[in-house]
Amino acid sequence: MCLGVPGEIKEIDGHEAVADFWGVERRVRLDIVGDAVEEGDYILNHVGYAIRKIPESEVEQTMELFETMLDADPEDMMADDMIEELEANSGAPAPGAQDDDEGDEDDDLLEELGIDV
Fold first, then answer.
1. CB burial readout 46-61, b (16+ within 10 A) else e
2. Which candidate, 49, 52, 47, places its Cα nearest to that of 90?
3. Whole-model pTM?
4. CA 72/CA 80 separation, integer angstroms
5. For the chain, what are the domain ranges?
6. Residue 2's pLDDT band (boundaries 50, 70, 90)?
7. What pLDDT is attached to residue 102?
8. Record's superkingdom (predicted)?
9. What is the 3-state secondary structure (H, E, C) of 11-74?
10. For residues 63 and 77, what is the distance between their CA atoms, to the nearest angstrom?
11. Can you tell me whether residue 111 is helix, strand or coil?
12. Which of 60, 10, 17 has the alpha carbon at shortest distance from 40?
């Protein structure tokens, strides 16, 4: 299953942006999103690509829905897909991350969410 995960755009540099996913910042590409994206906008990310800009009127409801999924049992298939999507970029360091700390932010997020992988 393909799942997009919502995140907030923090910085934009050409066709690349930094997005915040529950405290974990990742670089995402904006090439295929189809709408103009600005800092502060929310997007759905799929394996490093913003695939859709979330309309402002839908952001709160979308975030609540995904937070509910993150709180679900990690054995739940939808929660598992979302966790996999959050981890999909883990090979690319978060902006400003040191090489020796690579992956620590992912581990912190998963620990905070009570997810044991």
1. beeebbbbbeeeeeee
2. 47
3. 0.66
4. 9
5. 5-112
6. low
7. 46
8. Archaea
9. EEECCEEEEEECCEEEEEECCCCCCCCCCCCEEEEECCEEEEEECHHHHHHHHHHHHHHHCCCC
10. 19
11. helix
12. 10
Q: Read out DSSP for 71-92?
A: TS-TTSHHHHHHHHHHHTTTTS
pLDDT in tens, 13-69: 999 999 998 888 999 999 999 889 999 999 999 889 999 999 999 999 999 988 887
Query: Are 109 and 24 spatial neighbours (Cβ–Cβ below 8 Å)?
Result: yes
CA distances from 47 to 19, 73, 83, 115 (A): 13, 23, 12, 20
3-state secondary structure of 3: coil
Coil, strand or helix at 104: helix
Number of Cβ within 10 Å of residue 79's Cβ equals: 18
CA–CA dist 85, 81 (Å, integer): 6
CATH 2.30.30.140 for domain 5-112: yes
